[in-house]
Here is the input.
Amino acid sequence: MNQLIKLILIGILFLSFLKMPYFFYRLSSYAMFAGFGWIAYDAFQRRDHLDVKIFALVAILYNPFFHIPFPHFLWSIINILVIVGLIINLLFSEENPYDNFTKKDDR
Here is the structure.
């Protein structure tokens, strides 16, 4: 499920480089906020503290309620970094992380 959400978010971020109407960018900010929030929640359930911090930070960055006024070129750089990070996360993620319930700090 998370891999599908990550692929959808990568697609939305790729589409943001094209000339799209303003409505697309508003709708995509809601979708990215919800998607990154879900991935952060799932990482919290897996007790993966680093992923929780990263995805929560990215969810706050794309939050649609309080827009962060970065210039366009900076948003482009941020989008590229997030795309690369999501692709790396997709490539190195576990097949089924719920098999082993004693993960990270469980003793």
Residues 34 and 59 are 8 Å apart (CA to CA).
